[in-house]
Amino acid sequence: MSVGDDRVYGLKGVIGLVRDFMTRTERNGSLCSDDQPVLVVEGFRGTGKSALLSTLDDMLAQVPHARIDLETNRHASVPEVLSAVAFDLSRTYPKYELRFPRFIIGQLAMRLELDLTDHSQAYKQVETALERYRDMDTVRQVLVDTAGSVLASTGLPIEPPESLVRYAVTWLTRHTPGRQLALGTFQNWYGHRDLGLHNDPIDVLIDLNHWAATADDEYDRQRIDELLLAAFLADLRSEFARGRRADERSLNAVVLLDNADSELGRRFLGQLVHARRQRAVGEPDDADPLTVVATSRGLLLSEVPEADRARVEPEDLTAGADRPRCWWVGYRLPDLTEDEVGRAIADMGLHLGKHQRLTRLVHDLTGGHPASTSLVLEAIAHDVPAKWIEPEAFLTHTERRDQHAPTVAERVLDRLLAGTSETAMPDLVTCAAARRRSDGLALADRDLLTCGLTGYVEGIDPLLWPEEHSAGLTVLRRLLTRRLAERTGPDAPGWSEVHGALRHICRAGGDEEGDLYHALADGELGFVAAHLHRRLPELDCPEWYELVQAVVAAPRLPRTGAVPVDEVRALVEAAALEPPVVPVGRLVAALHVVSDPFTDSRRGDVHLQIADDLAEVGRMREGGPHAVFLEAARHHRREAEWWD
Amino acid sequence: MTDQGIVPPETSMLRRRRMRRRMALATVAVVLAAAGVWGVVTVSGACGSLDSGVQDIDGTCVGVNDGSYVFHPELADVLGRIEEENARVRDEGGYVSVALLDPLTPTETSALPLTSVRNRLEGAYTAQRRVNTSHVAGDPNPRIQLLLANQGDTDDQWTHVLDRLRELSVAEEHPLLAVVGLGVSTARTREQAEDLADSDIPMVGAVLTADDLEHDAISGLIKTSPSNRHYVAALRHHMRIEGLDTAIMVRDSNSEEGIDLYTRSLEEEFEEQMEKVISRYRTQQFTGKSASGDSTPSLFAGVQANICASAADGNRAVLYAGREIDLGDLLRSLRNRTCRETPLTLLTAGLELGKVLADPDLDLRAAKLTILNAATVDPLGWSGEEPGTPVGYPDFHGAFVRHFPANHLLDGGAIMVHDALLTAARAIRLAAPNGAASYLTPERVRGQLLNLNGEFVVTGASGTLEFSDGRKDEGTGVPGGKPIPVLRYPSLTDRERASERVGDLCHIVAGPKLVACGPAG
After folding, report:
1. ipTM of predicted assembly, 2 dp
2. Domains observed in chain B
3. N or C: fewer beta carbons within 10 Å in chain A?
């Protein structure tokens, strides 16, 4: 949720939550980690999930941490992810110097070419190999090699961690010939696995090698994942308690997993939680010192049983608040508040005496969607409004003033639709006009979409109708609607065709509001005004005004650039309204204009017009003006003072 | 969490560990600081090198030193010699220590001026050399290391010095066996002597003329100088011969305070032994500089007027119960007296008048003033081997002038300190008949102080002295046989001489007679 280059807004609470989950407790004179949940940070595209991980990445300079994008590495395996994580955690930090000898032994064992037909031969091969592998270069390369492409994707330098080099040297110096290998404790772990087992460690390593040879088998893959994950966690526990500075490691190591909705992410985290649960049963006071923060658009937690997950709301993030104790915790990143947008604008240091107006316009335009807000503010910083504030100008701004460069609106759409097939765009544009999910579905059923009903259900519906509403979705729909307005040609239905179809759908469904909404969107001000004028004596005043407000939320065709009040006059004039309907028609037109987030800041006259029309409409009711009109009129008079 | 990042917070274990470390560091720091402070104090308070044994206390360098620390630039030569002799003694081994406890940092107003201090040191050095290189004090073994203890003026100063002396007296090797000198007769000297006596450290005073600074009052203290009663007895003898039957006494009011025991006891002896002589005139008084340091000649204006008043009555004698340092002012006042046509004789005892009379403006003859001083020594006469010259003086003189100018003998200080150290060395040798330094203790030496008689007399430069245990109040520890020459200033017979011995020569004797006088030789 970064806005600007170096400011972060709205993340403080969740960063505090991460820190809480990282904090180790002092018990009986030593530091212990508690069982902490996997923190799943959810949000719409562009909500700032990755920005949060970047921020954490930056803030964790003194704590071992690893960041892996599980979408980019969706074809990797759990052991590869573990190797990459172990590699990053092994970097040198002031109070931490972590090594992963058990895990490395397992990785080494998996890579051996053993004669699995002769167990004793395989046994000797493992012993010999482990001795042979105890050379520095091998150890240095183990994590790099076994991480596959995962490590390369982190973008961090892949130099062998110094601690590993030193570790390798230690291995060499500890070398003692004979059957009791120098790897001693680490190798022996495979015999008991901290679970009190009594297996021969070499046998287990032979089994591991065997499973790796048949890794196509899902069961074997699970066993590999389980064993290596357990080894990895055992190393972590052991390393945190080792050394002179053990009592200074007051924070867990951290793994930041971006896009954990991928199959790899769900598998990795599922295995991690499984290992933790197993461990917690036997050793409830010996949790692994690892805090996991994963980002998700919602899929990850939807597959977790409700009993195992909890949700933290932004208001729960106050200091000292109780934290949920379960294996998973979800946190939905909130959109930016108007205050946060205002703070971001103030921090830009613009020489502009209209900060509040600009703040409101930007927030109205983006709804506080962080990525959109960031891009809009970037445009404003490059092209500071000179007179009035023109949102259209923000959206059409291009980088480097290159006409071929993407506009802000295009860049926002790219962010919101990242990963979406280009072929789905026409149908997305079409469906964005629908007010309700059922309307969109009905559009698909009317054969207005190229993707058909199945394509809608699989591709369009999850994008436009997610479980959780967000400002990002609002921005997406607005921008897609603008695309609809721009649409010409016979390949896809145009603005009127879509809204006309939706009017029919709504009318057929008895949706008066939808009918009027799409009629207004389609420029049918006369129809809308007449209908509402007719309904004025029929409905309660609040009910009627609510209907009006819902209708005027309809999208508008791109503006002409005229002064808003002139736009209103033009609309009313074009509608050729009957005199009794004019106040209602003018009210609807004016409200439609000021409800449009793309309308510029010269709204003062329009609000005055609205206030007058509200008074007049109120007088049209028997019994005189209703309080709802009086209150609304007062509101718009105040608004008139606020705008240009 | 900070703007800089998430940093592992400090744990209580770390804090405890750090606290322990800090406490350890603090302890070390405190120790170092204390050592530093001690070092600074020591260095800043040290006089000379850190191991000089001399320390700045109340602005004065006091302490005990072997001559390596130069208390005053004018003393550098003699101190260097003492240091050298001490080094030689240490190199040869088999030595013990004797300390010269004296004021070694004189000021303008000190009872002992710088030259006196120097001369006393020269006498001490001469004695040290003689006892270490000859049989003047018996077997030259054990050899004597001479330590120099600056007496100090304040309580803190002399407490520091005495503490150090006590430490040295109980040293297993080369212990301090005696203290000599002890400055002049003041209340502080008495306190010091009492303090040392409590530690069984034997003492030999050089010029302690106060009557109560002797063995009868302070066990373990003997002195090579007469007491005031002996001086006054000698003066009385001469007054009778001179026909001076009346006198007006001038006294130092410091006597009342008990600060200056010398002036007090001299005044008391004048009053006791010359009661009839002084009864006719009221005693005149002044406040001497040796105590307050700020007396001026004008203070004697009233004294001078009354002296002249007595002169008008026919009186010709003035008994002066004061210090040398104030005598000059009195003489200058009398030089301009209203009755300057009337010759006056000023009688006093135990003073060293060389410096006073060196003032060119103070022409006694022109002022018709004569001073009769019952003296401890007569260097001018003895150097000319006049009748009455002590047997031991020529050898001493020869030894002295090998190192120092002969005129350094004129104030008598060198002679008296020489004899004090010689006496102490004699007692030490007596306590160590086989010449061995082993097993010698201050107590054993102290036990021999009153055995310095008979075969073991001290052949001092100021006389052949003997010390014995007499009856109570009859002079235990006073130097029997000590001559008391009465010197007249200026000489009537030789205008070139500052003084001449007059009349009979008195010697100290035990018993109430105090002195026995007769023709010298």
Report:
1. 0.71
2. 54-225+384-476 (3.40.50.2300), 229-375+485-518 (3.40.50.2300)
3. C
